[in-house]
Structures are given as C-alpha cells and as structure tokens.
Amino acid sequence: MSATMLESESAVRDRYSQAAQAVDANLCCPVDYDPRYLAAIPAEVIERDYGCGDPSRHIKPGETVLDLGSGTGKICFIASQVVGPAGRVIGIDMTDDMLGLARAAAPVVAERIGFGNVEFRKGRIQDLSLDLDALDHALRAAPVDGSAAFLQMESLVANLRKEKPLVADASIDVVVSNCVLNLVSGSAKKQLFAEILRVLKKGGRAVISDIVCDEPPTAEMQTDPELWSGCISGAFTETGFLEAFEEAGFCGIRILEFSAAPWQTVNGIEFRAITIEATKGKQGACFDQNQAVIYKGPFKEVLDDDGHRMERGKRYAMCAKTFALFSNPPYQDQFILVEPAETISSCAAPPWDYTRAALRHPSETKGGMARLSTTATSENCCAPASEC
Length: 388
Known about the structure:
By secondary structure, the chain is α/β, with parallel strands linked by helices. The chain has 13 helices and 14 strands. The strands form three sheets. Strands 1, 2, 3, 4, 5, 6, 7, 8 and 9 form a nine-stranded mixed β-sheet that branches. The chain has a three-stranded antiparallel β-sheet with strand order 13-10-14. It is globular and about 70 Å long. The model is unreliable at about 1-5 and about 380-388 (pLDDT under 50).
C-alpha cells in the first residue's frame, strides 16, 4: 500500500472514529428515511449515521444484503426490516468505534422487531476477502517480531483470504453502500469495484448512494486529508462513477436518484448525491437457441453494454445468455422476447456465431412451422375475440 493510500485511509479512520463518539454534521447530506423503520433503531445509531441517500429503498424481502462501510449500522437495521426474517444483512466496516456501536445496537433492534438477521464484520471495503477480526486475533496470539514472523504472517493472511474469506464469492443478492465508495483511495478503487462484482450472485445488483462532482477535484484538493475524509476529494465525476461500474463488468447501469441541487460547492466544483443500480449477469459463454428480442421504443435505437445496437421494432438475434438477461430487471419492460417454436436445449445449442447477421429472420424462430397455417383464435390475436 502506498504512502498516499495509507494517509487517506488513516484520515478516514480517524475522522469516523471521532464521529462515532460525537456527531459530525459535516459528514452527511439531509436524507428522508422511512419513519416506520427508524422507530426500532437506537438514537445513538441514528444520530451518528453519515450518508447521502437511502439504498435500502431498492431492496426486496428475502434478499441477502451486504452494506459496505456500514458505520453505526443504520442502513443495515433498516434493510433487516425490509428483507424480513427470511433475509440476511451483513455490514462491513474498518472502524472499531463504529463497529462497537453497531454491534451493541444489534440485539436491541432484534428484540424490538422480533428477529435478528444482522451481523457486522471488520474489513476494508476494497478487500472483502480479508477478515480483519480474524487477523487481529492471529496477531494477538502471535505478534510479529522479526522478518521470519512477518513472512509467516503473510502466509497466514493468504490462507485467511482463501479458506475463510470475509465475504464468499457469489454469496450476495444486493450490495449497498451509503456515501462510502468515495473514501477509498484512487488507486484502490478498481479493486473495490472488482470485489463488489466478485461477491454478488449472477443476477445480483449493486445499489450505491454516493457523492459525485460535475468536474474533477483539483490536485490540491485530493491531497487534503480533511476534504478527503469529508467525502469531497475522493468523489467520482458524474460520468466517471457510471464508467467505473461498466469497466468492472456490470451491466444494466442506471441512475435511480440524482440531486438537482448540489450538497456543497468547493472551488466552483459542485458535489451532489446520486444513487445508481448496476447488475451482474453478462458473464459466461454464449450459445444460440434461436431466440430473438424486439426493442419496444420509445427511442429509435439503443446500444447495450455489449455493443448490441437495436433499432425499434426489429427482430434481433440474441444468444441465450443475453436473452435471459433481457428477461429480467432492469431490461424486461424494454423488450419483446421471442422464443423459438421448437425449444433447443442448452446441451444441444451451438456456440454463438459472432459473425452472424444482427437480425434474426422469422423463419429461424418458427423452425419447422415456417410453412404451416393456423386458424385465428383469441389466444393468438391481439384484438378482442369478438373482432377477430
């Protein structure tokens, strides 16, 4: 880890440790949370909550949720009530003082709502493999004294990542975060997004509230620890935030909320809150099962994250992977999904031909039924039966 990274992380840890002990009003934007969920949460948690949005509005019952930079646990405790007893919530934070408040509040909230489904783990959000509680325990048992012990500790760390990861691969339905990603140093941000993708299940999504800026922060601002820990210097630009998810391999990226008015303006640069959603699902091999999609509109054409350019109303050939992706949110309302008349099993489907024409001729989906005729019925007519 570079000296700059260490300095930034230290500034963040120190400021949030202090903010766990006394309220720091400069660390948050005004956010309206659903009062139904706040009643069960202790006042000290609510008072020391620092965020810029409410990603819990976009989670569903029964889901497994991971909150990055969970702090005192407010979003976790809201999410626990949304997902219900069939769901599960995991909070990750690196600050002992914040974790102490969250862990103390967990049994109180569980008693008030009638079930406990929240746990808090110590870790860095850009490194979701390393359990820092487990590492602390190992260091207390065998303090590092000399190069031999240091090398042995390196081996232990590698083993912890592999055998007992803080968060396992493909184990999470939704990753949420509230004004925390901007606190990670610039050189570690790529790893951060890769880690979010790693822990999500296929079809899972990230719902992230954060601060973005309309112009890049100046070099002087980025070396100011106070501005960095205050969610200013490390902010993504509005376009850079979305591009970071795209570059990591996410798709279906969309803006859910965008503050019209800036939260702060520093050196003429506007900083505002945003909430985005990004989906994991385009990974994997492509096979041809004779499926097609038709873009409904309203735009004349659209371009998806894999470079498929689709004009409104035309029948486009799609591999089975992309067809399945378009069958689910956030795409499902945008397309007409055309299944083949004769189902081709995944085992029998040939690999996708990347040289084929973009359009799918109707005869491909009709298969052996291409020259048959049928009698009109109410089931296959779009008008009322009396008019067919």
